[in-house]
């Protein structure tokens, strides 16, 4: 599903017809801690991130999972639905099923978040295990409709290719996340072409914008050193000056070594309340602190944004954007 292609085709069947609902309106929300097991800070952090994305909460809460589940051994989709149910009725969430499935995950949330999204897609696709589904139809699954974007790349060796993505790696090239994103180049999107000539793409444009934009900041460098550059994570950003996104969560890193680091999230809740989570506990933080204190500015590791507005011309012609319901 995540492989590059040189052509685009219409899906022969759309797997998920319901609009992707963004924004908190009509979506239930509960701020509760998540009990941690040993060495699970990455999974706990990403689980809090997921349940603070309205598009994800709306999808899971309106799906017919787990009743329709066909996964025989450990369904991550069922596990996420269980967490949402616990958020409604329990004082503290115990995500045993989720953590058991992800027990072999690595210690880097930038890697694990892609593993989670691919696993959610795979478990969703188990509903269609008895039929042959093309790659184009697979990309109409809810995880891809919510998180999936598509780059159009041009390289001298093989012409135009289309590269799907769930996350974007953002170099720390400026003082704000917006300016860092503006400085993204074709070589950042796709370092080397897949063909034998290994050309670097010379041109890059966005074919499909994701409903949820995950930005991975390059804090750990190739030599495993840590870049503590101040970067302000703004409440709102634009992608290519056409798509407006609002902040849903930020993952921060505590530690300057990739082998010893642990992580924690700050989430943006309805009414603009910011909460910092540490396993089962959480506390409110101010927006001023988030954009002024060095402990936040120097340790931001991942930022998650949700689409809130797009110009009318792109809303009418921009592929999956036609299926987004703006609720805010």
Automatic annotation (TrEMBL):
Gene3D superfamilies cross-referenced by the UniProt entry: Cysteine proteinases
GO molecular function, a single term: cysteine-type deubiquitinase activity
InterPro entries on file: Papain-like_cys_pep_sf, Peptidase_C19_UCH
Alphabetized SUPFAM superfamilies for the sequence: Cysteine proteinases
BP-aspect Gene Ontology terms: protein deubiquitination
Matching Pfam families: UCH
Limits of the Peptidase C19 ubiquitin carboxyl-terminal hydrolase domain: 34-230
Record protein name field: Uncharacterized protein LOC113215312
């Amino acid at each position: 599903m995540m492989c590059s292609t040189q052509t685009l085709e219409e899906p022969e069947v759309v797997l998920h017809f319901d609009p992707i609902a963004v924004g908190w309106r009509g979506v239930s929300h509960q701020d509760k801690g998540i009990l941690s097991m040993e060495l699970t800070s990455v999974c706990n952090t990403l689980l809090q991130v997921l349940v603070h994305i309205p598009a994800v909460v709306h999808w899971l809460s309106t799906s017919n999972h787990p009743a329709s589940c066909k996964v025989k051994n450990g369904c991550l989709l069922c596990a996420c639905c269980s967490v949402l149910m616990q958020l409604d009725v329990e004082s503290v969430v115990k995500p045993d099923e989720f953590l058991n499935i992800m027990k072999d995950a690595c210690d880097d949330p930038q890697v694990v978040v892609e593993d989670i999204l691919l696993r959610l897609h795979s478990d969703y696709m188990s509903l269609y295990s008895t039929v042959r589904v093309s790659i184009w139809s697979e990309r109409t699954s809810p995880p891809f409709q919510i998180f999936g974007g598509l780059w159009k790349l041009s390289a001298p060796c093989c012409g135009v290719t289309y590269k799907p993505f769930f996350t974007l790696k953002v170099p720390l090239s400026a003082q704000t996340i917006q300016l860092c994103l503006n400085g993204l180049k074709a070589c950042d999107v796709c370092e080397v072409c897949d063909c034998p000539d290994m050309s670097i793409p010379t041109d890059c444009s966005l074919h499909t914008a994701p409903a949820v934009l995950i930005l991975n900041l390059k804090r750990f460098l190739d030599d495993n050193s840590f870049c503590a550059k101040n970067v302000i994570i703004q409440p709102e950003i634009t992608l290519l000056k056409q798509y407006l996104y609002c902040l849903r969560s930020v993952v921060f890193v505590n530690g300057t070594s990739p082998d010893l680091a642990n992580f924690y999230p700050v989430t943006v809740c309805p009414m603009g309340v910011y909460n910092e989570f540490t396993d089962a506990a959480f506390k409110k933080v101010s927006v001023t602190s988030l954009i002024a204190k060095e402990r936040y500015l120097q340790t931001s590791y991942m930022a998650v944004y949700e689409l809130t507005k797009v110009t009318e011309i792109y809303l009418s012609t921009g592929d999956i954007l036609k299926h987004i319901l703006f609720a805010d």
